[in-house]
Amino acid sequence: MRGLQKSYKNLHVLKGVDFDVEKGSIFALLGSNGSGKTTIVKILTTLLKQDSGKVTVNGFDVVSKPGSVRQSISLTGQFAAVDEILTGRENLIMIARLRHLKKPTKIADDLLNRFGLTDASDRRASTYSGGMRRRLDIAMSLVGKSPLIFLDEPTTGLDPEARIEVWKIIKELADGGTTVFLTTQYLDEAEQLADRIAILHRGEIIVSGTLTELKKLFPPAKVEYIEKQQTLEEIFLAIVAKKEET
Question: Which of left, alpha, beta for 171 (phi over 0: left; psi -120 to 50: alpha)?
């Protein structure tokens, strides 16, 4: 992504955003509500057109080759996009058929087993808990084994146990070679999962790097009886505060 800009009427949401995501990595985009995270995801997934800037996904330009981009990605939005009338198995079979894949029932059963949903596979999705719906939603995104998956605030509204379940799934995806683009408001989530982290503030990337690199931007740890290690939350707040001062 180079020089990405996007405005809604008189509101300048993105003001020249630049970043790269390495293949097979987990990239976390952090930012408060209204910072532009979801707008970036929508542009990357061809759901929204940028005003200016160059954006390529898996080697395809999002403007000139949107169809190729869509074929090579999956998207899990902020809210679980499951059909509540259908069962868990039927949801997965539906997506497999829409992707014109062979043996949709086997694909569904394999994913149900992988995500611990086999026992609930023949229940309507409307009866699932929040964590189960989110697992099903991510499983639906994996139908077809896309090399790149977008997760837009995947654990918002989930209880701690369900969040940990989703974290485990995301780590397994990356271990299997899938590139994961993650947006989140939970700093501990990025700290646990991400290979690289970018902080989006007022439409600009104000810092980007590994957690270790971000910690170097924070004042040295105060040494008392033990050395206190800064959390990503402290780093985030300090960087944003410093940016506000300039």
Answer: alpha
